[in-house]
Amino acid sequence: MLFYYYTLLIFLTLQTLIKSSYSFIFSTHFHLNDLYHNNLYNNLYNNINDKNIYNNSINGGNVHNWCVYATKSKLKAVRKFTRDRPKKTTPAAIYPSPTLYYGNVHDHFGAPPEYLPIPVQDTLDFLRNGRLSELISLLKAGITGSELSKLLSDNSFHEALSKELESIKDISEFQNDDVSNDLYLYFDRVINKPEEYDHYVDKFYTLKRLQSYWAEREQKLYNTTFRQLFSRLRSIAYKMKDAGIPLAEFANPTLWHKYGVFKPVPNCKMVENYLKKHQIAINFDIKKLYFRDENGEIKSNFENFFSKLYKPDDSTHNSTDNSDNSNSNNNSEVEDSYSLHIDKVIGETGFNVDENGRLPEDLVDRIVDDLSDLGVLNHQEPWAINLSKIEELQEQFTTEQSQHAYAIRDFYLSLKFPDYKIETDPYTLESYVNHEYRTKTYERDLLVKYKNWLKSGAPRETFKPMNEKYKHLAIWHSLSKNQRRKLVQKYLKTQTVPVS
Fold first, then answer.
1. pLDDT for the residue numbered 383
2. Is pLDDT at 334 greater than 60 in this prediction?
3. Cα angle vertex 274, ends 323, 298, to 5°?
4. Could you read off the pLDDT of 160-202 as tens digits, one per residue?
5. Angle, vertex CA 58, rays to CA 56 and CA 64, nearest 5
6. For the region Disordered, what residue ranges are annotated (predicted)?
7. Which terminal CB of the chain, N or C, has fewer other CB atoms within 10 Å?
8. Is it the case that residue 491 has pLDDT exceeding 70?
């Protein structure tokens, strides 16, 4: 028993000694660690102070930011510890290349729906054989709401359509057909309110609205640019007057281009390039490009047309040099109707399209042969088109090959569409492009306004002071937040009435 207590006492004594030794070791370690870090930080602080003293005394006082690096070591193979660019907010795309075919056809304007619902057979009979088929043919032809309203003024036609429409409504209710019900709702609005639902009737309604929005927007931008150009023209005209050129002699668009009046707008030659591309069709009757000889073979008049066009002594047709001279003659009235070429009598051609809108086969073969000689088509692969050659012909439009290609194009379109013609009015041509490219229109309107300005005595531009409202607004924006708050508090004190 005594031995047991003696062994237990020795064990407790050893345990106490071990605990005290551990506490001593830990305290000594932390104490030494604190001393080490304090010494390290003191050395870093002294180094920073020394650097600041050096920068202030020797380096001209330019104190640089010294980075104190962290004690944690970088990971292995880490090149940079900090990140210069911001973090990515979106994950990287798995397939960055664009897809070849887009799945949703409704993303494209005018695309047909993927599925076309079909009504029941009884409704289809009315749509194919009844008076509704006449209405559908009119809608396909592109009739407008006002035109359809005049046709529906015939009571017999309107009553027949209304009767068939009621039958379609009964079919939709009896057979529980949703497609027939949708057709009833559509045709009910078309028949009874065609002018109110013009977007249901006219298939070009959206394009017309977009065209009108674009035309109004471009006209506003054109007016703004025109005012800027006229202000620039007046300032340059007075500078030319100081240099010795009278204001009346400066009424010349060539001088305006020379002295930088049109510098804010791009130098556009769209009209000149268009007229050069189609000069065969402008100077000659393009429908006579191909003809049949005595043997019935198809011949081409292109070489004859081209030689006459570039013949300098030709008196029957205007050459391109004469047309260029007429363009550069700025003494003529720019505001008058502008026509580069004389009027020509358009004759009949021996070729006509059939009921299906197709040309004669021998004429098509001759056109294909000419296009193959130009390099656009290939005899070995007639289904393939050389797009690079087409681009080359479009860029080099003054060459004989390019003129031949454009002549073939105009000949085909003149047969395919009887009302097709080449527009020669530059102002009409420029109405199809954006406002900054309407150089000829700017010249015409500026010349008219410049002459009116000379008749009014050529007054200088008056300085318009800023409106009082914008003066106060500018002062308000220049104040700080506290200044605004104090002014508001001061104003509220004058407006509030103390409560008695």
1. 80
2. no
3. 90
4. 999 999 999 999 999 999 999 999 999 999 999 999 999 999 9
5. 50
6. 313-334
7. C
8. yes
Q: Which contacts qualify for 408-412: CB closer than 8 Å, 24 or more apart?
A: 408/289, 408/367, 408/370, 408/371, 410/278, 410/280, 410/281, 410/286, 411/281, 411/286, 411/287, 411/289, 411/290, 412/359, 412/367
Structure tokens at 323: 């047309």
The answer for residues whose C-beta is within 8 angstroms of residue 405's C-beta and 6 or more apart is: 371, 374, 376, 393
Write down the residue that tokens 């977007």 correspond to. Answer: 199
Closest CA to 168 of 157, 177, 159, 156: 177
